[in-house]
UniProtKB/TrEMBL annotation, chain A:
InterPro entries: MetI-like, MetI-like_sf. Keywords: Cell membrane, Membrane, Transmembrane, Transmembrane helix, Transport. It comes from Streptomyces albiflavescens. The lineage of its organism: Bacteria, Bacillati, Actinomycetota, Actinomycetes, Kitasatosporales. It holds the Pfam family BPD_transp_1. One of its GO terms (cellular component) is plasma membrane. PROSITE patterns: ABC_TM1. This is Sugar ABC transporter permease. Belongs to the binding-protein-dependent transport system permease family.
UniProtKB/TrEMBL annotation, chain B:
This is Cytochrome c biogenesis protein. It is a multi-pass membrane protein. SUPFAM superfamilies: MetI-like. Belongs to the binding-protein-dependent transport system permease family. InterPro entries: ABC_transporter_permease, MetI-like, MetI-like_sf. The keyword Transmembrane applies.
Length: 278, 320
């Protein structure tokens, strides 16, 4: 009996520690809600407010007056959406080739692709900027979409997935039925690897939505930027004066991400673990 | 990474039989090459050519507009004696250490607890992962208010406890602690999920055998869990080294208002200026593209050296 009691106590202690961790994880979001619902005077007063206030709509109006919030949100959706579609298509197509076909140069090309993982972004930043300036893309969303349209991580990820998920017999059978390369890709490969595509899609969308350093440099027109850059502008100009308004913007920028994450959480968390111990 | 080795099996030859293959040669595979070409074209235009160009650039002086001027090794020589760059290296490593060691420690503990908790596991995993999916700009703004000197939550807590307030974003160590706290918060849950996946590959018979031999939980952790977790630990350490040493967004957003000259200055006395922030300042604020390229190669070297040192340390410890 004593040992059962002991293990129950240990169980309670365990959950207490985990709950503390959980509260620390979500607290900054709660804090953002607190600040976005108070006026500046309330925020600057002591003791700090710990419960939501009533100035949310006022902060929201200030936000929409100071920055083209929906314009930048549209830009972010445009960039993240287009990149996701392009990445899913190009990466899965290349991955299908690497996973299931034999051709001259296959090993070298694959090794080359993996080496690209290692190249840090700063080494590319200046020449990319120069090239895009020559192409006339600086200041437009094209500068963000085109270079991100295919990536080594996605090809590697989808290749690992396709190697095990697509059975060679299936491909052989479809070939006997007269299916060409594209039909094999579209009708045999893609339906089988939907879970892998879902992970890559969510991962890509969130990564693009959050991207900050390159957009900050490439989007030279301050009136036509993505949401992250707009937020940063808000913080730079109003950060020390109108915290409630800036915080409202930060909070609203999180909403689409949280929705995508809530939809794909199970997939992401499960696959992330699998990928790491592979 | 290598706990479950992937066995490389030669892919089935679906496209053509060997005989036909030899006859038609490379051209017969044009569909396959076309299918992988988008990545390589993009890589050529926005990866390989830029890297080569940045090497070329690092031997030249260029403001991005006028004509280039050959400078030989002079920019690298200048870099070696550039005290602001060395300060940036120091800042980066200190912030990395302040963030990474607590993060790995907390992540392993969280993973072990999650592994033994039966109920609500998915709720915990969801909540712990949440910090990682949120945009760094929004989070940095939120942390900026937590660490604010005048009305920040941290100082309010210190005041309530009767302690002296700290000018977090105005003092050399306050800045580093604030940035590191933000990074630790953002990455602990992510790495805990990875450690958890590693823990789940450890056979439960090992734990039962240890219990039979009378090993306590602490002994079991250090004798079984930690050694078997080493491949995952190595993975986490390498990833956090490569990403941590290239941190940019966190200090940039947190400290952009504290200096009027450059939003990449990294706060008073450059105390929060990381290597990549310094790169941005030299390149895009000073328009010194040539020197910026040299700085970028310097960063690349530091990251590689530091990764090798880390790798060696973890592996060495494993051999004892």
């Amino acid at each position: 009996m004593a040992s059962i009691k002991g293990s129950r106590q240990r169980g309670i202690a365990l959950h207490l520690v985990l709950i503390v961790g959980l509260l620390l994880s979500v607290f900054p979001f709660y804090w953002a809600v607190i600040m976005s619902t108070h006026s500046s005077t309330e925020i600057f007063s002591y003791p700090p407010k710990l419960l939501p206030g009533s100035h949310f709509l006022e902060n929201l109006r200030h936000l929409f007056d100071s920055v083209d919030f929906f314009g930048s949100m549209f830009n972010s959706l445009l960039v993240a959406g287009s990149v996701t579609v392009l990445v899913l298509f190009f990466d899965s197509l290349a991955a299908f080739v690497f996973a299931k076909f034999q051709f001259p140069g296959r090993r070298v090309l694959f090794a080359l692709m993996m080496a690209i993982f290692m190249v840090p972004a700063q080494l590319q930043a200046i020449p990319q900027f120069v090239i895009m300036a020559k192409l006339g893309w600086i200041g437009s969303m094209t500068a963000l979409i085109v270079p991100a349209a295919a990536n080594a991580f996605g090809i590697f990820w989808m290749r690992q997935y396709m190697k095990s998920a697509i059975h060679d017999e299936l491909l052989d059978a479809s070939k006997l039925d007269g299916a060409g390369f594209l039909r094999q890709y579209w009708h045999v490969a893609l339906p089988v690897v939907r879970p892998g595509l879902a992970f890559l899609g969510i991962f890509t969308f969130m990564g693009q939505w959050n991207d900050y350093a390159w957009p900050l440099i490439a989007l030279t027109n301050p009136d036509n930027v993505t949401l992250q850059v707009a937020l940063s502008q808000l913080n730079g100009v109003h950060g020390t004066t109108d915290y409630g308004m800036v915080m409202t913007g930060a909070l609203l920028a999180l909403v689409p991400l949280l929705i995508v994450f809530a939809i794909g959480a199970k997939q992401i968390i499960g696959d992330l673990g699998k990928g790491a111990i592979r | 990474m290598a706990t479950a080795p992937v066995v490389e099996t030669p892919p089935a030859v679906v496209a053509t039989s060997p005989v036909v293959h030899r006859k038609k040669g490379i051209l017969s595979h044009w569909r396959l090459y076309a299918a992988i070409s988008p990545f390589y074209l993009l890589f050529l235009a926005f990866g390989l050519i830029p890297v080569g160009f940045s090497l070329y650039l690092s031997f030249h002086r260029w403001d991005g507009l006028g004509s280039m001027e050959f400078a030989g090794l002079s920019q690298y020589r200048y870099l070696l004696g550039d005290s602001q760059f060395w300060t940036a290296i120091g800042n980066t490593i200190i912030i990395w250490a302040l963030a990474t060691f607590p993060m790995i420690f907390l992540a392993i503990i969280t993973a072990v607890l999650l592994n033994s908790a039966v109920r609500f596991k998915n709720v915990y995993r969801f909540a712990f992962f949440l910090p990682n999916v949120t945009s760094i700009v929004a989070v940095a703004i939120i942390f900026g208010s937590v660490f604010s000197t005048n009305f920040g939550l941290m100082n309010a807590v210190l005041q309530a406890l009767g302690l002296d307030q700290v000018a977090w974003l105005n003092s050399p160590w306050g800045i580093k602690v604030a940035i590191a706290t933000l990074m630790t918060w953002q990455w602990t849950g992510y790495n805990a999920i990875i450690f958890l996946a590693g823990l789940q590959t450890i056979p439960s018979e090992l734990y039962e055998a240890a219990r039979m031999d009378g090993a306590g939980p602490v002994q079991t952790f250090f004798r079984i869990t930690l050694p078997l977790l080493r491949p995952v630990l190595l993975f986490v350490l390498v990833i956090s080294t490569v990403t941590g040493l290239q941190s940019f967004s966190e200090p940039q957003v947190l400290l952009q208002t504290t200096d009027n000259n450059s939003s990449f200055a990294g706060g008073p006395g450059h105390a929060g200026q990381t290597m990549v922030l310094y790169f941005f300042q030299q390149t895009f604020d000073n328009n010194d593209f040539g020197y910026g390229a040299a700085v970028a190669w310097g960063i690349f070297l530091v990251v590689i050296l530091f990764s090798i040192i880390n790798w060696r340390l973890v592996q060495r410890r494993g051999e004892d």
